[in-house]
Every structure is written in C-alpha cells, then in structure tokens.
Amino acid sequence: MRLLLKIFIIIFSVKASFAQINTIKHAEIKKYKPANHGLKDLVFNVKAPGLAENLNSKEFLGKIENVYFTIYWASPGKFQVDIIGLPRGYHELKFALKKNMIPLLKIIFPDDQANLLRSYSLTSEKITGGEKIYAVDKSGMNPINSKELTFSRDGYLKSIKSYGRQSMEVPNIEFKMSKQSWSHNKWVLLKTTSLISQGARITSLQTEIDYQVLAGFGLPKEVKKTTAVSWKAGTNSVNAFKPIRNVEKFIFSEYQINTGKALKKFLVNQKEDHVKQK
Q1: Cβ count near 58 (within 10 Å)
Q2: CB of 158 within 8 A of CB of 79?
C-alpha cells in the first residue's frame, strides 16, 4: 500500500511539473523573439555616450577619442562582443566592459525560462489576474534557492521574485510588456524594474527600451538604464548618505541583418584557433 502511495505521489508530482512547464513554455511562445521570425545572423554596434570621457578621467589609457562595441550573433545562439577604440592590453578592463553588454544582448535574445528552471521542483496556484508558479531547488546546487514567477491572465511573465542562499542578494524583477504593430501579435519587452534590498540600502535598476523596425524585425534603438540607491527610513544610513541616481544610455546602430557576416566571423575565429593549436 505504501509503495502504491509513493508511486501515486511521484506520478502526481511529474504531472504537476509538466503543467507548470507548459505554462512557462506558453509564455515563451507569446514573447517576441526575432530569432523566431527569421533572424539567423546579426551584427550591430552599441555606443554608450560618456564612456570615452569616463575612461579618459582615469588617465592611464591615454587619450580615448571614440569607443564602442560591435556585437556578432548567429543562430542558434553563438555570439561575440568586440570593443573598438581602446589600446592593446588592459584585458581585465575590456572583459568587464564586454560583460556589461550581455544584458543588452539578452533584450534581443532573451533566456528561456523553461530551461533556466529545468532543475527546479515546480508548483503553482491561480491568483487574481493570472497564475503564480513556485520553483524550489531541492538539489542544493543552484545559487538561487527558490523563485516565484507571476504570469498575467494573458499569459506573459509579469515578475520574478528570487531568494538566494544564505546572505546572497538577488533582484526581484518586474516586466512591462506590450504588443506592437510589428510584433506578430507577440508581447514585446518595454521595461524592466529590478529591486535589491541589502541591509539598509535599497538599489533599483530600471531599464527602458525604445525600438526601431528594420527589415521587418523590431530591434532596440536606445536603451536607458537608471540606477537609484536609497536608504531605508529610520536607520543611521539615512543621515549618513544621500540618495544616488545614475542614468546610462546605450545607442544601437549599424545593424547588418542576415548578411552572414557573423557566421563568417565565427568561422574565421575557428580557423585561427585551429592554426594556433598546431
């Protein structure tokens, strides 16, 4: 009898997880992704106004006239970020600057939530205006212990609330989405708002995306990131520190769509690496 009960519980848990995965996959299908509409190869530039001035203020790079990023992407997900305008060397600085481009790339090619939650145990409940899915890592291997994903009645992802292990601070993220005339009846990401509370300090990051339509694809034209740091009322930190607000803009340009240039770049890199190994 106990064996039958265990088998029933296992079967029920598997079926429940399938139900939640289907909800998540359905939301992914409803999300606008250029790669799902014929985008195979993409090259574009990203420029951050004020970056050259900021680097010049450090005085160890020499005079920087113009610095920008060229990003290569080819299906199914290979990408490379090059930084143009800096002198040779300074590998750690370049690595850090390139790393900042990854979140911008994920605006065009977002992560698949179903894949990110593959190792989590899932449950769900219906809520007013949608559904909430609870994801718990029972393996103890993931840095994020658990997540709460809220989906709208229309099926798109509204927010993710994450809980890190021990003292790890992770952001809670809200998504603003809307259908556009060019989005094939899919939901387009317009804004994200992330919030991290760490002790008395509260850090919020708001990312706003302005799009343009090129060759039938909706692609970013400008991204504005606003970071604000404040302190909770009633703490000594409020008197010790003033609120901080910083705005960064990223301009996207020089798009080359389905030209094969990115794939060619990767093939050349592959050949050069092969020669070096000989």
Answers
A1: 9
A2: no
Q: Give me the pLDDT at residue 230, please.
A: 85
Using alpha carbons, select from 239, 236, 246 the residue that is nearest to residue 204.
Answer: 246
Torsion angle of alpha carbons 247, 167, 147, 126, nearest 10°? -100
Contact 118, 135 (CB under 8 A): no
For the record, the structure tokens of 52 come out as 């050259």
Quick one: which of 226, 225, 186 has its CA closest to 37? 186
Whole-angstrom Cα distance, residue 172 to residue 146?
12
Q: CA nearest 232: which of 203, 202, 205, 206? A: 202
Asked whether the bond before 76 is cis by omega within 30 degrees of 0, the reply is yes
Asked whether 257 and 35 are in contact (CB, 8 A), the reply is no
Helices (H) and strands (E) in the chain, counts: 7, 12
Mean pLDDT, consecutive 10-residue stretches, the chain (278 aa), reads 41 54 91 96 95 81 87 93 90 92 91 88 91 90 89 93 75 94 97 87 92 97 94 62 86 97 92 59
Given a contact cutoff of 8 angstroms between Cβ atoms, the answer to whether 6 and 12 are in contact is: no
Give the global pTM. Answer: 0.84
Please give the Cα distance from 275 to 168 (Å, whole number): 43
Q: Give, in degrees to the nearest 5, the angle at Cα 104 between 100 and 109.
A: 130
278/276 Cα distance (integer angstroms): 6
pLDDT at 19 (0 to 100): 79
Tally Cβ neighbours within 10 Å of residue 6. 10
With beta carbons less than 8 A apart as the criterion, state whether 237 and 243 touch: no
Q: Choose among 221, 240, 230: nearest CA to 199.
A: 230
Please choose, from the candidates 136, 112, 107, 139, the residue with its C-alpha nearest in 3D space to the C-alpha of residue 212.
107
